[in-house]
Amino acid sequence: MAEDFTSQDSPLSRAYSDGNHTVSIDIYEDGEGGWLLEIVDAHNNSTVWEDVFDTDEEALQEALDALKEEGVGAFIGPAEESGSWEAP
Q1: Which of 28, 26, 23, 37 is nearest to 67 (CA)?
Q2: How many angstroms separate the Cα of 39 from the Cα of each of 64, 72, 82?
Q3: What is the pLDDT of residues 27-56, one digit of tens each?
Q4: pLDDT surpassing 90 at residue 9
Q5: Looking at 3-69, which runs of residues are DSSP E strands?
Q6: Interval 73-77 mean pLDDT
Q7: Alpha carbon separation from 28 to 6, 70, 79, 88 (Å, rounded)
Q8: Is 57:12 a contact under the CB 8 Å cutoff?
Q9: CA-CA-CA-CA dihedral for 85, 31, 29, 43, to nearest 10
Q10: What is the SS3 assignment for 14?
Q11: Higher pLDDT, residue 14 or 79
Q12: Is the pLDDT confidence value at 1 over 60?
């Protein structure tokens, strides 16, 4: 019998602001020992990394690096459309 898995959020998940833009850095377990990374904007548009990270610290560092390199605006989608984007 398979065990039910309930994904657990990392305590490193947080909001990130730069200027007038704020996004949510969501890091959560994948059920197989890895960590998933998603950045969500105020319109509920999300950017999800395909890579699985070994630690939640690695996932957070990847998010912070991407936000600094690309700018928060790169992760803000249109208000009228909600959907999932691939990571830059």
Answers
A1: 23
A2: 10, 10, 13
A3: 999 999 999 999 999 999 999 999 999 999
A4: yes
A5: 14-18, 21-29, 35-40, 46-48
A6: 93
A7: 10, 23, 25, 20
A8: yes
A9: 30
A10: strand
A11: 14
A12: no
